[in-house]
Write a structure and sequence with these properties.
By secondary structure, this protein is of the alpha/beta class. It is built from six helices and five strands, in the order βααβαβαβαβα. Catalyzes the formation of methylglyoxal from dihydroxyacetone phosphate.
C-alpha cells in the first residue's frame, strides 16, 4: 500500500518545502501526494511529481485536506506553516493540526521534523499502522 500524504506550505515557506521535497525525492516518488492549490502547482513544476491539487488553502484547501484526514484517506501531513505571518485562514490551519491529533495522523511542520519522519524505517513500512481512535 502506497503512503498517502498531504503537502502544504504557506507562502513564505514554499521554497523551504520545495527544497525539502527535492532532498527526499526518492521517498516522495513512492507516495500518493495531495497538496493545496499553489503549493501543488509549484511541486509539479519543480519536481515533476504527480500531485492531486485541491483548492488554495484560504479558499478551502486546508479544509479539504482536513476532510481527507477525518475520512482516513491520508497517512501523514507535511505542513510547513509560517508562525511569524498570521494568515486570515488561521482558524483553518489550527483545525487541520487539531484533526491530525484527533485521528493520530503524523504531522511535520518543519524541515527537521519532516526529515525525521521520512527517514524513519517505519515511514514506508507496510507494517506500520498508527492506531486510529474509536470514537
Amino acid at each position: 500500500m502506497t503512503k498517502r500524504i498531504a503537502l502544504v506550505a504557506h507562502d513564505h515557506k514554499k521554497t523551504e518545502l520545495l527544497a525539502w521535497i527535492e532532498k527526499h525525492l526518492s521517498v516522495m516518488q513512492q507516495c500518493d501526494i495531495v497538496a493545496t492549490g499553489t503549493t501543488g502547482q509549484r511541486i509539479i513544476e519543480q519536481t515533476g511529481l504527480d500531485v492531486l491539487r485541491l483548492k488554495s488553502g484560504p479558499l478551502g484547501g486546508d479544509q479539504q485536506i482536513g476532510a481527507k484526514i477525518a475520512e482516513g484517506e491520508l497517512d501523514a501531513l507535511f505542513f510547513f506553516w509560517d508562525p511569524l505571518n498570521p494568515a486570515p485562514h488561521d482558524p483553518d490551519v489550527k483545525a487541520l493540526l487539531r484533526l491530525c491529533s484527533v485521528w493520530n495522523v503524523p504531522v511535520a511542520c518543519t524541515s527537521a521534523t519532516a526529515d525525521l519522519m521520512v527517514t524513519s524505517p517505519l515511514f514506508l513500512s507496510q507494517d506500520f499502522k498508527p492506531q486510529k481512535p474509536d470514537y
